[in-house]
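Predict the structure of Xaa-Pro aminopeptidase.
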Amino acid sequence: MKYLPLDPQIFIKNRNRFTAKMQPGSIAIFNSNDELPSNGDALHPFKQNADLYWLTGIDQEDTMLVLFPDNPDPKHREVLVLVRPNELKEKWDGHRLRREEATAISGIKTIVWLDALDGLLQPWIHDAINIYLNSNENNRKANLVPVRDYRYAQELRTRYPLHNFLRAAPLLKELRSVKTEEEIGVIQTAIDITEKTFRRLLGFIRPGVFEHEIHAEIWHEFLRNRATGEAYGSIIASGDRARTLHYVSNNQECKDGEVILMDFGAAYGGYNADLTRTVPVNGKFTPRQREVYDACLHLHNFAKGLLKPGITIADYHQQVGVEAGKQFVKLGLLTESDIKNEDPETPAYRKYLYHGISHHLGVDVHDLGPSFHQPIPDGAVLTVEPGIYIEEEKMGIRIENNIWVKSSGNVDLMKNIPITADEIEALMKK
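Done. Here is the predicted structure for Xaa-Pro aminopeptidase.
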């Protein structure tokens, strides 16, 4: 790992929060993700299962976690399972965790090797009434590959058909949506690295630079600050390309007179930042660009003002949409008649703002959280990212910050990152 060691209390607290939700007489078993082949004998870079990481902090393949709070043997109430270090494999692929290293990361004292697990696990399961197993219940999931969690669930159902199987995912969705102060500290580090990167870009962007050169500056600043890498594929979209929400080609020239939309964030310690800023390529907004930018910033601040514990995403989006319609009338994009006669199923503002305003953020960029119609909990972290996309003017503007939603008052975790048109122009002028 590139990042500095995290406080194991993060993961100790997370496990305690999960076991407190388990039914009596239950065992819970979590698996790491698979190593996925690319071509030939190569593998894609390993990406840990987010739930397993949230519970342990372990970012190594072939890892398992067993939680059995009612185990009669106290030392087996939480067990971390690792692949046994192999001298030959380490010569090729590098160091694998030893017991003491895994304990330092996770706070788990009992470490067993994967090849010795079966003989231990069977009597534990015989002592349990319920078996919690994990699955990916992220509502955005679109994966038909039979990943390890699903294969393992099928295997255990075959071996132990008379046990009661329970879903871990609903508990994790509830728990992971509420961030502890320790988790916020790690997210803030990812955000601070992202801020340094954005400030670097403001001194680098100029007419004639290519999008991929800006992308290279992002990678440089991320890695020199110990980020794991990108939280997601960075979007560096100048001119009309900014209207493509997931534009990742990043291979075109940034031209004088365009604005460039940059959506990027650092990944650090298993947690993510998610920033969007839109800046003038030549360092100076035109009057029309500034008018649209200021309208987008107004929507951003309006949305931040609405975002409170207890509101649902559905109600929140509806209210932001109403305000967006008003702003688009002021910008000359819509008329009052367009608003009055709109189809409620397809509001008029959707022509110029065709995505959601917020999503949960944490171990996953699109993190777990309540459904669209359930209240946002106290302690959630959400993005706020309205945009305005005008095909006729070949322009797209989006502004995004990350907000810790608190009943005591929201915390804008990106409050130190320049956001107004004046701030951006002043820094680019330097």
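The first helix runs from residue 9 to 19.
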